[in-house]
Amino acid sequence: MSATTLAQNLIPQPQRLEHREGAFRLDSSVRIVAPNDLRSREIADFLRGAIRDDSGIALAEGRNGRAIELRLDPKIMGEEAYRLTVTKDRIALAASNHRGLFWAAQTLRQLLPVERSVGPISIPAMRIEDAPQFSYRGHMLDVGRHFMPVEFVKKQIDLLSYYKLNTFHWHLTDDQGWRIEIKKYPKLAEVGAWRTEADGSRYGGFYTQDQIRDVVEYARLRNIMVIPEIEMPGHASAALASYPELSCRKQPIDVPNVWGVIKDVYCVGDEFTFEFIENVLDEVIALFPAAYVHIGGDEVPKDRWRESASSQKRMRDENLKDEHELQSYFVKRVQRYLAGKGKTLIGWDEILEGGADSSAIVEVWRGDAEGAKALANGNKIISAGPFYLDSPLNALTLEKVYATEIVPAAYASHREQVLGAEAPLWTERVTTANAETLLYPRLIALAEITWNADKRDYPDFLQRLQAHYRRLTQWQVGYGPENRNVVDFRFAWNPSAQNWRVQAERGFSDLQLRYTTDGSEPSSASPGFTDSLTLSQVVPLKIAPFRGARAYASPREFTMVSHKAVGKSIQYSSQPNANYRLAGEQVLADGLLGGGSFADGMWTGWQGENLRATIDLKASTPVNAISARFLQQSGSWILLPKAVRYSVSSDGKRWKRVYARSFDVDAGSEQRLVEDVAFHADKPLTARYVRMEVDQYGSLPAGHNGAGHPAYFFVDEIVVK
After folding, report:
1. pTM of the entire predicted model
2. What is the pLDDT of residues 263-315, one digit of tens each?
3. For this structure, is 146 an active site residue?
4. Which one of the listed residues 42, 73, 278, 299 is annotated catalytic?
5. How far apart are CA 664 and CA 72, in angstroms?
6. Annotated catalytic, 229?
7. Catalytic option among 54, 69, 130, 174
8. Catalytic residue list contains 298
9. Among 235, 294, 414, 704, which one carries the catalytic annotation?
10. Distance (Å, rounded) from C-alpha 164 to C-alpha 158?
């Protein structure tokens, strides 16, 4: 690859790049010259190490001879602006402050070849004048749901810095895990950092304060601000499991092992709650020098406050008209405390409910209408909703990220209040095994559009990205496809051969699918296939995608069941929700049972509609049993149906009802339930057709976090024996 081509592959694309005649010869005789202040020396040391690691060239020490010169120039306007000049005799990096100077160093790194050099490197002469359009360019990593080790976090910080993303938002606490050591409250780590999974295993982890300091310093050296998020007043179950006295009910709870919105929240009526929160924040503030602290503030059910005498008294004492204003009281009180410590509060857009102080920064995730409310209230905002990177790759494609406006039309009159954007990665279904496939290259697209939003050219961006794929591979980054999932599976039953055919749709042509049938975890040494696999018997099947020796995702586990309806024709009165199995698939007669997650592809969901599913067994068949499993996970808006009925018929016209069951659904239960709705005949029946009818729950009730919206019901398979 030519030196000029390397200059054309810069991401983010610079604001101005002018090519000139000649080139600078980079070899071991070149020195780095920098101002004598501490930060300039740190940047010089970083650049020297990066050039050695990226190219293999160890630069000389001293101040004589050809040089890479770092210079602070007050004439360069802009907080993160820089100028990079390459001539035959020298490379000059200049900025008015150290932030811009560091970005100049990162741009110079991108001018190096991808492959390590065995000799001198030629860097083309050029002049770059560059500055970002948005001051906030971030990524949020949720480590509450799934813990990410320090090494993984540092690797992501390296990548953020390489692409000039300047903010790492560390989501450290949630219902399912508390991940930061607080010395005054040791049970947060001893209890709140661990949960018991559905299979009985213990899962968790936390960062010591020394590890936090190490990561924050690592990020500082790379021009990254680390913002901690300590969730409150909701998403606090891990803290309440550690210290039940913080809850309104004062009763012990377990750290949850299910996702969704959970009703237990900090009890806003008790002064002890605020004493706890202030003590926690004091330790957090001491660890994070950033000017901001994120408190979450999202998805706060009000049920516990309604039943709490102390919370109701707080409302009366403060002349608050409802629980939304009580939440606002909580947020404003915490905001005042943070302000007294010199910190600005950031919260998700729910902090607007009940009224928010205009000095808070609002992170918008629920759409432009919420963002417009915040802007009208005088708040500065960060856009996050369009960039949720836990979204499937085939839904939020690379091109869709690249095309998203940071300042949509609804914000146009408040342009100066839009700080920038952030791409969150929520980890309910994400671990270190698949996180990078979701982050990259979409996070790289965000880096470009937040730096240089006005010069978008998607084909040009794709062309520049190709060189970066080689760099990511070299750095062992498991980046994902641009517009397809890493792998999707389809199961089909072949009645004549009496076997299953597993069909794979691979996101990369070189992806190899490794599998086991004995319950063990697939490895790079396990047998593999590419497009299809045939199975002649029911086995505990696990499949994992690999590129070379690298696993690209956690194994998918498929629970198979053989029965008389597998592969048979099935008709639905209404199609399943498109997000939970594509319309038209024979999903309730594919021989697969649902697993631990409603989004695992084996559960099928309907929302707001009743269902009549009719199976044609193709011939009169003895029927001894009919069953189906239904899921309830209320926090995710999934409830058991009101009723289920089974009927049989010989001709598809005259039906005999053989079973009916009604449910007294507890929409307030936060337990994950799997209900097996089973009919067993007293004596064998003979039928060609089997029908299941499901009456949906209806709208979610008052007090539910989704009140007024239609509930889902989820079912995995109609098993006919």
Report:
1. 0.93
2. 999 999 999 999 999 999 999 999 999 999 999 999 999 999 999 999 999 99
3. no
4. 299
5. 71
6. no
7. 174
8. no
9. 235
10. 10
